[in-house]
Amino acid sequence: KSLIVWKLTRDETNYGIPQKRLYGHSHFISDVVLSSDGNYALSGSWDKTLRLWDLAAGRTTRRFEDHTK
C-alpha cells in the first residue's frame, strides 16, 4: 500500500537506507517503473489505479483509475 524510496549504498552489511514512504494506494503495489532521470516513479496497484509520483516532493502528481493490466 506504500512505496518506499531507498538510497542505495555500497556497504556490504547495509545495502540501502529508506529515505521516504509514499502513501496513496489502497491495495498491494504490483509494479513500479522509474523515469530515466530518476525524478518520477509510476506505480500500479491491485486497487486498479496507477500513480505518477514526484519523488523529490514525495507526492502523487497524477492518478489514473480503472487500469486492468
From TrEMBL:
It comes from the Eukaryota. The keyword Repressor does not apply. WD repeats lie at residues 22-63. Pfam families: WD40 (PF00400). One of its GO terms (molecular function) is ribosome binding. Keywords: Repeat, WD repeat. The keyword Repeat applies. Belongs to the WD repeat G protein beta family. Ribosomal protein RACK1 subfamily. This is Small ribosomal subunit protein RACK1. It comes from Bracon brevicornis.
